[in-house]
Amino acid sequence: MALRALEAEVGLSCFLGAGQRLQGQLRSQKFPMDLQRHDVLRSGEVLHLSSLGTGTSSPSKPFHCAVYLRGSGSLQERLAQELQVPKAALRLGPRLRQPGVSVQLLSLPKGLPDKPPRETLTSGLLQDEDATLALGHTDLAEDGRSVAHRFSVVLRGLNPREAELLEDRVEEIRSNGFVNFFELALFGLAEVRHFEVGACLWAGRWSDACRLLLTANRRSSQLAPASQAFAQDDYERGLELLPSGCKGLRSLAMNLLLKRSAHEALVKSLSRADWSRYLGAVSRLAWNRAAALRLQSLPLKPQPGDLVFDEKAGEPRPVTAKEVHEERWQLRDLVLPLPRPSQAVPFSGGRLSMEAVLRELCPEEDAAPELFPLKLEQLLPKVRPLVAVPADFSWDLAEGDGIRVPCDLSRLQPSEPPRTRGPSAEAARHSGEDFQRGGADS
């Protein structure tokens, strides 16, 4: 019930289909291979870890490799250490926000440093208690980059009675897609949500933003003592109580202890990625709620005033009544804008809903654009499709436990337990069934 409340808070409150929901367990904490994500490149190729080790590379030549990560831990920090480059130099897509396996394209436009390579580049493998990191060579052009993701998801413990409905529900997703909500993890799961901090930054309430950041973990066993001290503006005591590794919080508290302004402390302590994460959470929240309202209050087909993206103009534009009559567009063609600080929300069917969310979170006037240490036009895309339709969608039913879908590293290391094939979809109608799904999300 607590999870449902968190989902409802960020707008995850409706579905495209009105049929019966299928419930299973995503147990990637125990079985990391139950959730796998692979980059899809511009060419349409799905990126795989096909070998271990990156080979040699000229220090002045752009460097590309496939990066495999299984488990927890900070991927960027690990990579930066092994490649001997600053973390900011890495060109990576978004991290997988829950336990699982990811295979990503890593690019270093300026190449590797002119230093002796570490063993990880040669062996291609680094393992510890928290994670397994592997690097592999890839033949790519210099402009190679990820444009989409391919997911493999295993749901365990599917109810046998629900399994009878699986084919219809999967075909419905294949044909109509699903609501393109921003996922729950993007809003943060701490006591203070990302959009609460983002709202303070959006409106220029710098002191409030500092307080929220420093006191966001008062229930955490490790951070609770420091957070309590910060809540009383005792920065010196809070710094003494902070556990090691909290570089951002330590920098923020130290700048405030040195009597720097709250805005200056934030600029000095938060990275551009931090600013983008917090401000983006406000925009994403407004988008989610507007999307839910659009789908719940209007027919599930284009209406005059809905937005579509005009490829020729490179801009979104409203759907006309004539186009609705001619049925020129489908629900999957609709987009909603993503609001930005200090900019009016573009006209669309969801504009009033977005403005209401922004007024609720940021009743004051927005902060001036020059006060943000990043280009606001690069914060998020202008628009986001209302519905996502997965490409290359397939599924299967299997019986039993253990690894259902092997990962790239298990194929390169046969010592890992192989996948046990279950019966066919027609035969697998017993308790303990698993639902396996794969598809590319474009």
UniProtKB/TrEMBL annotation:
Residues 409-442 are annotated as: Disordered. It comes from the Eukaryota. Gene3D superfamilies: TruD, catalytic domain (3.30.2350.20). Belongs to the pseudouridine synthase TruD family. The keyword Lyase does not apply. Pfam families: TruD. One of its GO terms (molecular function) is pseudouridine synthase activity. Keywords: Isomerase. This is TRUD domain-containing protein. It comes from Effrenium voratum.
